[in-house]
Amino acid sequence: MVERVPVRFGARSYDVLIGPGVRTELASVLHGLGVTRTVVVSARPREWVPETGVETLVLPARDGEPDKNLATVEMLCREFTAFGLTRQDAVVSCGGGTTTDVVGLAAALYHRGVPVVHLPTSLLAQVDASVGGKTAVNLPGGKNLVGAYWQPSAVLCDTDYLTTLPRRELRNGLGEIARCHFIGADDLRGLPLAAQIAASVTLKARVVEQDERDTGLRHILNYGHTLGHALEVTTGFAMRHGEAVAVGTVFAGLLAGELGRITPGRVAEHQVVVAHYGLPTALPTGLATEELIRVMRRDKKAVNGLSFVLDGPVGAERVTDVAEDVVARVLERMPRRPLSELLRETARA
After folding, report:
1. Biggest distance spanned by C-alpha atoms of the chain
2. Using one digit for the tens of pLDDT, what is the confidence trace for 113-147?
3. Which of 65, 110, 114, 319 stands 20 to 30 A from 293 (CA)?
4. CA distances to 177, 240, 272, 287 from 276, in Å
5. Mapping DSSP to helix (H, G, I), strand (E, B) and coil, where does residue 206 land?
6. What is the three-class DSSP state of 187?
7. What is the pTM of this model?
């Protein structure tokens, strides 16, 4: 059964299709866009790329943070030029979250914007990176510091792709699903995976329709991400995004409790929900509190002092100017375990 989630931006509206085999809709989507050629950037085997119905150049890519940089974006744009891609054509991404981000940014910049269609092949990309139009790459100083808003023309979340994922990669995507519990989704525990994806995408779609450029409401989608991004950077990306966001979600509950925003029961619920999905709930040992705070200061959402999205009486909202000594106190109270142990358990869960 295929779920269709509309993302409404007037003339720039598009659909997210979720279900088995939906990647075969690619040729129909491209035909509807009126393109005559396309560049498919794929981090997956050639046989995973469906027929496009138009003249096509397939470029290999690699998922992972090492290639999520401006050098990769420039390389892609050079290939687009050599192929003769125009504004009347389209780019297609086929891969995980990093490929989706990099290809999306290249499409946003080339000729000041060409249509892009995403075929996300990881759970993380299907529930988060492919929807909403945020594209970005990293700088040595931090995650996602250079980017643009560029809505795709369509997103095809083929759940057949997910049957090939290792357990750890599935858990990586569940980190984004777990945080939905605290930003307005119903309790998704126990639902089939496709239903969890559809619910997560629907929630994100309704948020970004109201705040495309992250000036207010969209901040809630960053629940758990401030510490999560810091954990990715300070572990040299040994912690994957969803794993780090899971720990960041537990921390967000503890910090909200420390600030008197939520009850002890709601604080405990953060740990229970994250643990349900088989995700880590402890900080890795060996990470200095001072270093984590230093990296969090560079978060792109920070303006004055530390900023977090926290649960509260009216739900999740952005809280600014959180005192560093309070953040340090909560970090020090969190349990710590060796990183290798945390990741081993995640892979087995």
Report:
1. 59
2. 999 999 999 999 999 999 999 999 999 888 899 99
3. 65
4. 11, 18, 6, 25
5. helix
6. coil
7. 0.92
